[in-house]
């Protein structure tokens, strides 16, 4: 990270151990906290208040171990001259606090796409920032961190409003909420600076100019920094008068949910932050990466990492021409040609959609095609005569405002297949390169995934037409493709699940904890 120029890293490890000490001082028991914290595999969601208890409870040994690890992480970050960003109190509280402080303004939130709306795990509790208890807990959390770690960079992240709409759109109310949140930080650290994600301004129509100004201007200038989270696609700075004068960091989000999809917008990555910095009245103070998952699309992250050191826009074509040699350690003209194709196809997605990989082959199997494709055509079984391959294909790739449910195709598949042929042809010269083998597997996976969409269309067509013979034949081909994909991905450890699970299990101190850290899809209750 330090070699890539990162000097403002998030440092969230071990915060559950801090919260344990804080909430116990507010008379919340260890047992109650067991139902509050998510399990090791689900901390991201429990910290955001999306769920509670799922995959838990966390063993005390794990809490202690994580706190020790955090102290080592912080020491190394400071050693490298970094400024670690610590968490602050956002209002997410255990249910037990409603019993300990029955008069406190605590609201139970609705379900957030999780655990079948089961109240045992969904629908967490949020303490209103205007309640005096909010500042008390906020102060206690900051103070406990300073006590444990001995020092701070004075920068704290808090996202109370991220995918959590305030109960009122009154600007004065919103301003009072935000001011109270900051007071909670400042009461524990006089020099506190609030670092806030700007995703809410991209994702939630609630945030119109009056509400946005009320939030941003509730904190003294210089004490709030906003992450323009999805700036490579939807830059908020350009539509908000530079966040109404508040400093911001131009961020590339790129990846949603850790999905694997060869995807990017290299032209935007290589120019967007420069345009923002040079714009009139710019309040941009840095560049950043805010991906939900990494270990994919290395070309995108290589380029974005360079932007911290660049003053001018990048000539992407020239950059691409030298990329393959830098990546594989050898000049191979056919590979350069292949990457030139990929630059103009896979890495030139300009449709503005959030790429989340909704290809059929990674969807949950379902006999109802409506569960995979959003289309009025597929909900009319009485009109089978209207179904044909072309109409189903249009339905599959029809782009609407709800792109989340659609397979995403923004390029010519035939051109990408030509690039794959060039990769394969270059194998004799590059087979010793691990990065080449990784890219070859990834590109093959990409091509097969898009082919699977086409094959599934034919399966659905046969089903709709009552063609049992073709349905069986095509279904076998599709299942065979799934098997081929498994064989392909097993050929490079960069696509294997096992190493991740084995690494996680190294944290466990007994067999029961090994099962818990390996937990993927169901609670151990």
Provide a descriptive summary of the structure in words.
The chain is α/β, with parallel strands linked by helices and 525 residues long. The chain is built from 22 helices and 9 strands. It has helices at residues 15-24, 30-34, 43-47, 60-79, 96-100, 132-149, 171-186, 199-203, 209-216, 241-244, 266-269, 272-278, 298-306, 316-328, 333-344, 389-397, 413-425, 427-430, 434-465, 468-489, 498-505, 511-517, and strands spanning 86-87, 92-93, 106-108, 125-127, 155-157, 193-197, 224-228, 248-252, 284-289. The strands form 2 sheets. The chain has a 6-stranded parallel beta sheet with strand order 1-5-6-7-8-9. The protein has a 3-stranded antiparallel beta sheet with strand order 2-4-3. The longest helix is centred in the last third of the chain and has 32 residues, at 434-465. It is globular, with a radius of gyration of 25 Å. The two termini are 38 Å apart.
Q: What's the rounded overall pLDDT mean? A: 89
Task: Flag low-confidence runs.
Answer: 374-387, 393-402, 521-525
Overall number of strands: 9
What amount of the residues lies in strands?
5-15%
- Supply the helix-strand structural class: alpha/beta
Helix content: 40-55%
Summarize the biggest pleated sheet. 6 strands, parallel
Largest sheet, order of strands side by side?
1-5-6-7-8-9
Distance between the termini: 38 Å
């Amino acid at each position: 990270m330090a070699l890539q120029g990162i000097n403002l890293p998030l440092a969230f490890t071990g915060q559950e151990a801090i919260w344990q000490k804080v909430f116990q001082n507010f008379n919340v028991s260890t047992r109650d906290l067991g139902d509050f914290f998510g399990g090791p595999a689900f901390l991201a969601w429990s910290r955001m208040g999306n769920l509670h208890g799922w995959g838990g409870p966390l063993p005390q040994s794990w809490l202690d171990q994580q706190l020790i690890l955090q102290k080592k992480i912080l020491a190394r970050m400071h050693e490298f001259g970094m400024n670690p960003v610590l968490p602050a109190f956002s209002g997410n509280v255990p249910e037990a606090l409603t019993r300990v402080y029955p008069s406190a303004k605590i609201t139970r939130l609705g379900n957030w796409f999780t655990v079948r709306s089961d109240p045992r795990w969904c629908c967490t509790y949020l303490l209103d920032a205007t309640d005096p208890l909010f500042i008390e807990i906020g102060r206690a959390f900051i103070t406990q961190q300073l006590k444990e770690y001995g020092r701070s960079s004075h920068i704290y992240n808090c996202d109370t409003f991220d995918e959590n709409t305030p109960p009122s759109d009154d600007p004065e109310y919103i301003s009072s909420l935000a001011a109270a949140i900051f007071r909670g930080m400042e009461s524990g650290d006089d020099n506190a600076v609030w670092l806030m994600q700007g995703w809410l301004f991209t994702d939630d129509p609630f945030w119109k100019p009056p509400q946005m100004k009320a939030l941003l201007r509730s904190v003294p200038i210089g004490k709030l920094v906003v992450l323009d989270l999805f700036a490579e696609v939807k830059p908020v700075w350009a539509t908000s008068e530079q966040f109404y004068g508040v400093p911001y960091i131009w961020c590339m989000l790129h990846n949603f949910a850790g999905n694997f999809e060869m995807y990017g917008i290299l032209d935007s990555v290589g120019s967007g932050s420069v345009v923002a910095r040079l714009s009139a009245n710019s309040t941009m103070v840095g560049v950043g990466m805010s991906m939900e998952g990494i270990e994919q699309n290395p070309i995108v992250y290589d380029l974005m990492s360079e932007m911290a050191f660049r003053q001018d826009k990048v000539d992407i074509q020239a950059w691409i021409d030298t990329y393959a040699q830098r990546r594989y350690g050898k000049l191979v003209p056919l590979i350069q040609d292949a990457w030139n194709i990929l630059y103009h196809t896979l890495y030139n997605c300009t449709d503005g959609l959030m790429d989340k990989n909704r290809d059929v082959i990674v969807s949950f199997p379902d006999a109802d095609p409506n569960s995979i494709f959003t289309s009025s055509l597929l909900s009319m079984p009485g009109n089978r005569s209207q179904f044909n391959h072309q109409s189903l294909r249009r339905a599959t790739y029809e782009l609407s405002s709800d792109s989340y449910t659609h397979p995403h195709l923004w390029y010519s598949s035939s051109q990408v297949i030509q690039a794959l042929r060039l990769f394969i042809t270059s194998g004799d010269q590059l087979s010793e390169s691990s990065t080449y083998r990784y890219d070859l597997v990834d590109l093959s996976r990409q091509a097969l995934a898009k082919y699977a969409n086409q094959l599934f269309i034919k399966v659905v067509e046969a089903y709709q037409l009552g063609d049992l013979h073709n349905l069986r034949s095509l279904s076998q081909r599709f299942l065979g493709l799934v098997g081929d994909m498994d064989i392909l991905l097993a050929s490079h450890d960069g696509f294997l699940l096992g190493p991740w699970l084995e690494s996680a299990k190294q944290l466990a101190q007994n067999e029961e904890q090994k099962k818990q850290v390996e937990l993927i899809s169901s609670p151990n209750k």
